[in-house]
Amino acid sequence: MTTSATGRPLIPQPPATVTALRQAVAQIAPAALPAFTRELDQAADQARQGSDLAPLRRFVAQWAVQVHIQRHPHPAERLRQLEDLAATGDADRARKAASEIGRILDDAHAALATPPQR
User: Fold this and answer.
1) In sequence order, what are the residues at sequence separation of 6 or more whose Cβ sits closer than 8 angstroms to the Cβ of residue 60?
2) Which Pfam families match (predicted)?
3) pTM, whole model, 2 decimals?
């Protein structure tokens, strides 16, 4: 992943469309492309089964938030560290990490003006 020494985003925030988000993920977090594709397939299947676009809307909102975070190297790295801490098995550390993860996600949702997906 290319880093920005100036603290500015690596790329502009793309439009909240599947195509634009896929291109952004390929550029700034290519290792996440398999998860992107798998989750898109699941959302599309759920949308077809329920004749409802809500699963696709959730998918786009979730990945717009992920792209927003990954565009900023420092918060993206901190999120990875926190996810690792949360997986250690130590309940106190995991709780603290989860709280900070929540703040990072809430900040991203606020920046994109999308309600958090809970």
Assistant:
1) 16, 17, 18, 21
2) DUF6247
3) 0.84
Domain extent for 27: 18-112
The total number of structural domains that make up the chain: 1
Question: How far from the centroid of its chain's Cα atoms is residue 84's Cα?
Answer: 16
64, exposed or middle or buried, with CB in 10 Å at 0-12, 13-18, 19+?
Answer: buried
- Say if 105 falls within a structural domain: yes
> 3-state class of 111 per DSSP?
helix
Q: What is the pLDDT of residues 43-71, one digit of tens each?
A: 999 999 999 999 999 999 999 999 999 99
Q: Is residue 9 part of a domain?
A: no
Do the domain assignments include residue 66? yes
Asked, for residue 70, whether it belongs to a domain, the answer is: yes
Query: Tens digit of pLDDT for each residue in 90-105?
Result: 899 999 999 999 999 9
